[in-house]
Amino acid sequence: MIRGLKRANSVCTFAFRRHWASLSNDDSGKEVLFTCQGRCIFKGCKVTFTSHVDKNLQLHVKFRGTVRHAKTEKACRYISGSDREAMKKVLKRKLSRLHYLEQMKKLDSEALASGCRDGCPSKDV
Ligand SMILES: [Zn+2]
Hints:
Blueprint: H1 2-8, E1 14-25, E2 31-40, E3 48-54, E4 59-64, H2 81-93, H3 96-106, H4 109-114
Antiparallel strand pairs: 1-2, 2-3, 3-4
Bound molecules: zinc ion.
Zinc ion is lined by residues 12, 40, 42, 45, 47, 67, 69.
């Protein structure tokens, strides 16, 4: 889910607010299996999203609001699940600062300028 959101918006760092599973129909009448809502965690950023997964397991996302991040603010999403396990293995054989710098190089220029550091672990791990 978060990977689909990041493909559509790489500059915001998202937090989920609500999620639920149900069999209902979306605006176009397609069956919906799962729905979630959330927002960007940057202070002052008004971006919110509503997304749902249809019965073909396609993710649909609607964003609302305008991106507004302070120049000095940085934020990253908590690393959990399989990403956390993969990160543990990497950090056993690599310095955290080196891994941080490598991950920073992978960010696109807009994400870098926005202060979004998703996928970049702290240098102090
Ligand atoms: Zn944002």
